[in-house]
Inverse folding.
């Protein structure tokens, strides 16, 4: 069923972005809450937040790579 | 127009632009991404040479700028890993940051990834280059772990509490390092290619600015994750050597 490969690529990145999107949203939300409570500490929070977000984002990147591989399989 | 600007970027494999005859090895194919990574290294080397050509105790000009960047990094390293290990990790961490940053920013200059077989293409849009850096980090971390806790303790980590669990988490680190950087830069390249073929007026500039931000964030993430991995595996040595100092710091915080 090669005609469904574009659909698979779209679903791979679409569903794959869902989880990381939620994760990044929760993470940044909590960081903003923390900065609101203690604005002086915002400099210390930046780096751990970025590293945490990188882990969440990596999952979306895996999905993107899978989508590109599927897209390459149909000669996009 | 669209043929020139948009569609070439969709190929994951970089183009081979020429091959180099290395004595003893034979023909080595040189891709456009590899060529661009050499250019990035060249830029870094030239800046390093110019900054250290006339070094003075009271820095001025370029030396001042470079010193400010390195001192910022040293502060960050000492904050994360402690004063002794921070200085030891600084060369690898700061070098990978600077190389990735320069390569990413050079990759969005005009002339990169244009035409059917471009001579220049953002170095980190090639999985081979990001994987090479991730493998270097992987071996550096493993060797630091063995040196910090000894061979017996190092091997015990792989069996306790669950066999194979530690092996997969260790192997997952370089895979995610390589794929994250590659995916971000490759996706950015395609995004800019698509945008400039769809709306070739003003709009791409916004995405170029966004790609500059992505470039610095990804470089920072690669460097900081390297630092975090190194700090975690040498924690044992830290407790051993600076135990009293570490506890005193912990109670302050």
């Amino acid at each position: 069923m090669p005609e469904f490969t574009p659909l698979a690529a779209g679903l791979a990145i679409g569903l794959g972005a869902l989880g990381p999107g939620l994760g990044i949203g929760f993470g940044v939300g909590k960081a903003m809450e923390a900065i609101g409570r203690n604005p002086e500490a915002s400099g210390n929070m930046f780096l751990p937040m970025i590293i945490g977000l990188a882990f969440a984002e990596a999952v979306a990147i895996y999905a993107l790579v899978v989508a590109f591989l599927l897209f390459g399989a149909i000669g996009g | 127009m669209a043929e020139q600007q948009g569609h070439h970027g969709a190929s994951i494999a970089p183009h081979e632009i020429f091959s180099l005859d290395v004595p003893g090895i034979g023909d080595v194919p040189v891709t456009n991404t590899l060529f661009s990574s050499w250019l990035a290294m060249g830029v870094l080397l030239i800046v390093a040479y110019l900054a250290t050509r006339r070094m003075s105790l009271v820095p001025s000009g370029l030396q001042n700028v470079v010193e400010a960047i390195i001192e910022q990094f040293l502060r960050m390293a000492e904050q994360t890993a402690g004063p002794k290990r921070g200085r030891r990790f600084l060369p690898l961490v700061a070098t990978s940051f600077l190389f990735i940053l320069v390569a990413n920013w050079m990759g969005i200059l005009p002339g990169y990834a244009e035409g059917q077989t471009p001579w220049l293409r953002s170095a980190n849009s090639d999985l081979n280059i990001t994987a090479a850096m991730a493998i270097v980090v992987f071996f550096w971390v493993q060797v630091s772990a063995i040196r910090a806790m000894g061979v017996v303790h190092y091997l015990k980590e792989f069996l306790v509490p669950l066999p194979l669990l530690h092996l997969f988490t260790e192997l997952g680190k370089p895979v995610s390092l390589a794929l994250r950087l590659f995916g971000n830069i490759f996706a950015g390249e395609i995004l800019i290619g698509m945008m400039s073929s769809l709306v070739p007026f003003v709009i791409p500039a916004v995405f170029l600015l966004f790609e500059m931000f992505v470039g610095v964030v990804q470089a920072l993430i690669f460097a900081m994750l390297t630092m975090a991995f190194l700090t975690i595996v040498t924690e044992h040595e830290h407790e051993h050597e600076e135990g009293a100092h570490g506890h005193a710091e912990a109670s302050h915080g």
